[in-house]
Amino acid sequence: MNTLQKEIINTFFQTLEDIKTKKDFEIFFNDFFTSKELDTYTKRLAIAYWLKKKRSVENIKTNLKANLQEIRTVESKLNSKGYKLALKMMEAEEWSSVWTEKIKKYAKI
After folding, report:
1. Which of 28, 30, 4, 34 is nearest to 16 (CA)?
2. How do residues 30-84 score in pLDDT, each as one tens digit?
3. Nearest by Cα to 49 from 91, 3, 7, 92
4. Which of 43, 48, 82, 94 has the most neighbouring CB atoms within 10 Å?
5. Is the distance from CB of 72 to CB of 37 less than 8 angstroms?
6. Which H, E and C letters describe 86-97, residue by residue?
7. CA distances (Å), origin 8, targets 3, 28, 54
């Protein structure tokens, strides 16, 4: 990778880091990615999440409309840093949501 390519990639990552709201992320991703590209990346994340939750391959194929190759590709990357990071963040959000609901119920908010 040459210097210009590295600079372009760094600028892209910096742009992502500077986006602060979900709405702005949605605007960015909807303009920069085709619906097919966005579907591909979000499906990978969903496959990873369901694999981590021990869902069966058949369940994932049926519900996410994923093919076996997509599932196997994600499965082979589950132990990579990026997938681990994403899943850790999703699990933290899930834990937070569960406890928020429990607290609301207890406090009758």
Report:
1. 28
2. 999 999 999 999 999 999 999 999 999 999 999 999 999 999 999 999 999 999 9
3. 91
4. 48
5. no
6. HHHHHHHHHHHH
7. 9, 17, 38
Pull the structure tokens for residue 16. Answer: 């992502």
Q: Are 70 and 44 in contact (CB under 8 A)?
A: yes
Q: How many CB atoms lie within 10 A of CB 22?
A: 8
Q: From its phi and psi, is residue 89 left (phi > 0), alpha (psi between -120 and 50) or beta? A: alpha
Q: Nearest 5 degrees, angle CA 67-CA 73-CA 77?
A: 145
State pTM to two decimals: 0.80
